[in-house]
Amino acid sequence: MNTDCLFCRIAAGSIPSVKVYETDGVLAFLDISPVEKGHTLVISKRAHSATILDTPPDIAAELLAAAKTVAAGMMAASFGGVNLVQNNFPDGGQAVPHIHFHVIPRAKGRQGPLVWASGSNPYADDAERAAFAERIRAGIAAANP
Ligand code: 5GP
Ligand code: ZN
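^ Those are the sequences you sent over. The predicted structure of the assembly is below.
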C-alpha cells in the first residue's frame, strides 16, 4: 500500500469513511461527492494499483465481485436500478489513481442514462447520509446472507 494515496489511507482506516461493506480484501464506502444518493466506491485493501491496466486479474476479479455484492444489496434495498462505473487515467476522468469501482444506485422512477456530475446530488445532512449507508448495509445483508 502507498501512504501517499488517499484510497490506501482510507483502506487502512487512517482517513475516515462511511463504510457499507468490508471483507479482508475490499472496502466499500460512500463517495464524498455523490452523483446520486448512495453513490458507493469499492476499493482493494490488498494492494495499491492505479488503473485497471496495472491491477492483477485476481484483484480485479475480487473488486468486481464486491461491486456485484453491493449492487445486489442496493436492489434488495428497493432502489430501482444501479450503474457501475470504473474510470481510468486523467483523460478518462479518473481523479484518484487507486483503482475503484463506482456503484451508483438509481432511485425508483429515475430512469435515463446516468449523469456524471460529481457532487450533483448531495445529502441534506449527516443524518440523511447515515440513513442511505444503513439502507445499503441492510440490503447487502439481506441479499448476501
Ligand atoms: P474517479 O474520478 O477517480 O473515478 O473517482 C474518485 C471519487 O472519489 C470521486 O467520485 C470523489 O468524489 C471521491 N472522493 C474523493 N476524495 C474522497 C474522500 O476523501 N472520501 C470519499 N469518501 N470519497 C472521495
Ligand atoms: Zn492506493
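The first strand starts at residue 19 and ends at 22. The chain has a mean pLDDT of 96.

Shout if you want it in another format.
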